[in-house]
Amino acid sequence: MISSSIVQPGNARHSGREKIHLTPSDLSLLYLNYPQRSLLFPKPYPETRFISRLKSSLSTSLEIYFPLAGRLVKVNNHEDNTVSFYIDCDDGRGVKFVHAIAESVSVSDILQPHGSVPDFFRLFFPMNGVRSIDGLSEPLLALQVTEIKDGIVISFGYNHLVADGSSMWNFIHVWSKLCLNGQWEIHQPLVLRGWFLDNIDFPIHIPASEIETERARNREVSTKERVFHFTKEKLSDLKAKANDEIGSSDIKISSLQAVLAHLWRSIVRHSGLNQEEESRCGVAADFRQRLNPPLDKDCFGNVANLGLTTATVGDLLDRGLGWAALQINKTVRLHTNENFRTFSENWVRNGKIPRIDVRSRMGDHGFMVSNSPWFQVYDNDFGLGKPMAVRAGPANGIGGKLVVFRGIEEGSIDVHAILTLSLWSDVLLNLFDDVESLENVIT
After folding, report:
1. Hey, which residues are catalytic here?
2. Exposure string (b/e) for 353-383, b if CB count within 10 Å is 16 or more?
3. Which residues does 174 contact at the CB level (< 8 Å), separation at least 6?
4. Which of 162, 177, 210 marks a domain boundary?
5. Which among 153, 191, 263, 345 is placed 20 to 30 Å from 98, CA to CA?
């Protein structure tokens, strides 16, 4: 590490908005670790003063995306023994910026054959083991810029209470434009999510017993990672196979649903689970345009909710790709305005915050799917040209995680799989070593 500093917005009191109240979807993520992502670029010329440019353009970007510079605040409601949370986004405390150097590491060490991800790569991320509730003392956004022998890695970790993937990649795009051009065309004021659950009083009161009084130590878990690349042709074949198998003119399986179904079936095939055991696949959906009335499609905040698909290992393996993809499709179609509002009202009544890790039912033989192939991750040019690769950070104790990115070639998809070996057993090693089983996607 060369330096660690706090970068503040150029105008710390630009927002006029003091606080952002949190929804049930937000509060459900209190114990979820910060999502982390990274972009790998060619090495800049030394005379460009690249770090200085990154920090100055970041400061300007935070004038627009001011909630990222705020902090999480907890309020103790002594009258009913509950607590409430909100994002204080008007103090402009800033984000963490880490500058590091790994002179012995080259691009080829990171982009290994067959999509393998080296164990040391976790050191390139700034928020390992940090959870959403830690935003009470930690920045809501941290960035790490690591110079390597022939490239540079820009990574970030963010608090899911303040933003989702859509909002974060919009921020990264604006930051990259400012760094590239030194200025940004006239930018409209940030559209905040606002409060769209009219039947719920805010701030939401949570029983104090649901809040951990001490920082739980994240136990180290052994994980295995690999990035699977699906070309446009492979995606087309998978999608066609899944749709042929379900034989429906009313329901269409998407390329992403077909890929997730294929990976889900491949993983349970190598997992050593019994036919009767259940496996779960959680897929988050963007609710901006699913609400009635809809929100602005680019509004800033966390507007995603998790849907869980459950199936037995026997059904997944015996009923085929189309059946597995159809189960995911049904779960996605259940993400409606009515179901979301019912979930929110029930959550307020129950006030239970899930623990999403390997010790929970969510982590027990389950996967969480995050990010989206719709995000324009390769359009972020900080003056270094197009990124050479996009990667996810450590999963930090979740049983299984599939992080989906747009591939570098048009129409392709990359899936960064991070699986906990202690949970899935050493049999899972066969999945990663048996590259042919995933390359031959029609088997």
Report:
1. 160, 381
2. bebbbbeeebbebbbbbbbbbebebbebbbb
3. 61, 64, 65, 184, 187
4. 210
5. 191
pLDDT of residue 238: 94
With b for 16 or more beta-carbon neighbours within 10 A and e for fewer, the 10-19 pattern comes to: eebebbeeee
Check which CATH number belongs to the domain holding 44 and give it: 3.30.559.10
Cα dihedral across residues 343, 346, 348, 350: positive or negative: negative
Q: pTM above 0.90?
A: yes
> Would you state the pLDDT for residue 218?
52
Report if residue 45 sits inside a domain: yes
pLDDT of residue 436: 47
419 by DSSP, 3-state: which? strand
- The list of the chain residues with pLDDT below 70 reads 12-17, 47, 91-92, 183-187, 213-221, 356-364, 395-399, 421-443
Question: Count of domains in the chain?
Answer: 2
pLDDT at 248: 84
**What is the domain extent for residue 371?**
223-439
Please give the DSSP secondary-structure letter assigned to residue 228.
Answer: E
Boundary-marking domain end, from 210, 239, 271: 210
| Cis amide linkage into residue 293, ω under 30° from 0 | yes
Neighbours of 443 (CB within 10 A): 9
> Is residue 218, in this structure, part of any structural domain at all?
no
Q: Please name which of 173, 167, 212 lies closest in space to residue 191, comparing C-alpha atoms.
A: 167
- Tell me the one-letter amino acid at 344: S
Residue 242 and residue 199 in one domain: no
